[in-house]
Hints:
The complex is a heterodimer of chains A (253) and B (347). By secondary structure, chain A is mainly alpha-helical. Helix content of chain A is 57%, strand content 5%. Chain A contains 15 helices and four strands. The model of chain B is unreliable at 1-6 (pLDDT under 50). Chain B has helices spanning 4-7, 63-66, 175-178, 208-215, 223-260, 265-275, 278-286, 288-291, 300-310, 314-320, 322-329, 332-346; strands at 18-23, 30-31, 34-36, 45-53, 73-81, 86-91, 93-95, 98-106, 113-122, 139-142, 146-149, 164-167, 186-189, 199-203. In chain B, helix 5 (223-260) packs across helix 6 (265-275) and helix 5 runs antiparallel to helix 11. In chain B, the strands form three sheets. In chain B, strands 2, 3, 5, 6, 9, 10 and 11 form a seven-stranded mixed β-sheet that branches. Classes of the chains: A mainly alpha (253), B alpha+beta (347).
Amino acid sequence: MNVMKKFKEILTKEDLVSYFEGKKFDLINIESSIVKERNILEDLQEKFKNQLSITDKKKTALSDAIFSEIIYKTFYDLDNRDLADVRFWQWLSLEYLQEYIWNRWWISKNFDKSKSLPSTNDEKIKLIRSTSKEEIDIDIWSPITVRFLGGTSLKSLTSRQAISRLFWPYKILETTELVTQCFEKQDIAVAVFERQFGLHPDAAKAFIKNISLKHKNLDKKSIQTEAKKLNRYFATISPDYLNQDEIKDLLFE
Amino acid sequence: MSMQDIFYPYKTLENQIEINFKSLNNKFKLNNNIIAFYEAEDENEVNIKITAKINNIEDVLPETFKKNYSECLDLILLIKSIKSLTRKFFKFEKQGNIFVLEISLKKRDWRGEVNILASLVLKKKIQEIEGYAFNQGTQLGWSPTYKVLFDEPEEKIFGEGMEVLWESFKSEKLYWLQKHYYKNIYAIDLKNAHRKLPKIYLNKDIDVHLKALLDEGSAKLSQKNLYRDLMFQNIVTGVFVQLMTHSLIDLYSELKYQKNMSQEKDIAIENAWQEIALWQRKIIENYAIQLSPDSRKKDALDNIKEKLFDSDGDFPEIINVVQNIAQNNQGIAELFTKVSHALTRFK
Lengths: 253, 347
């Protein structure tokens, strides 16, 4: 039996530094009664490692859909209550999938600057936190911290936390084809899953299926404009009441 | 005129939809429109029966459609939970004049706060007539929002003040005060400030006379009480300045962080705002017009967020006036004057 865990408390940015300094945080079992096969987490690590080894380090983002399918198929049967718990994703990220996160969110963003993976915890701490040189000392946190920690806003699990952002789009979109379309152009994933309508499966599916029909070149500005337009409709229209075709009509109106 | 009339460019119900929201499990009682599911141990679901009656329902439709209004209107129940990353809807069944629905919410599907409300919607697209909604799914009326809390709220929300506790500043519990600050009179605990409203500690080890004075609850005008009020004023100002400064620093830092993520400005600002604690949002919101005194009242908060997002130079400027806002609002001048008059008189 392999019991899934989560941190007892949500880790903060300061906690992340403490984690890399070696502090052990209390863990508790997740609530789902699903019993996982032995070594499921080691298998998951192995799958990620294998996929990383055949991925161009400059373009890890292009493999998001593949990682999304792996993570979804590993955890799809857990209770929604656990899947929506950031503590579970923080634990999974830090204990099992750190290498992927550093590759996806550090190396691929800094490839041109010949940066390498941080190999020690000291290097990791230096990368995630620095201090501003202004009159008032303010900690400057690297954007990678949100990839480990998520946050408290709506988008933290669907679009920010490095592992849950792979899981949730698959759960909402349900097919590999749509997930591939969604991650092929990252602006689509951001436009849909940073907005509330992204939680409505028919709205998310309709947007992703039809955006490329309306804008063949899928430029960032058009994607953002269409997402904003749909969002405006949903200020007065209930997306829950509409099916995909009806939402498509709004997109093309 | 209903609230929605201001915001919606079409006719909506004059009044809120009145619903009867009843838990079918005896263990759960509705209190201020809230069912605290987390308080009941060993329960896995809550069953709820909702009934609704809508007066003058046809008023939201143009004349032509009024007669057969039920062909054009549906009452739905919207269930949304950001924490659960889930939204659902159910259609009410019409039984005579009453709309009826029973739902079951399972603990395994939800986290945190689940918001539930009934909404009247347009069933199909109808002929476009000015002043009336015509798009399918358009919302035409709303009930009050009911909540089911599957987890204890992380923060106190409204109407509760800060907790003030007497503690020894030499104790292990307040370890950060032990070495250098054990003689202080008060302290604010900001350790979990990102999640919870901070606590104020008063030092149990202070001089007995001072402790007695701070404990004095009398409102009578006397020299003793004036001295006490002066001391309280000092504490209140210190606490306010620290809470406001802490909140602004957190917001500024979060805005910079979100800016680094290179995303759309409005999304970045909204994200940063949602990332800081509820009490921090409240304190900035409540004093927004004073933090940005040249703004119109309704724009003040947005102006502060944008200023902090757009320019690093505006941060010291905003932080600079926190002390002045404290003086404006905490009645310092009035109390100081009162004390000076009293001292002159008592001499």
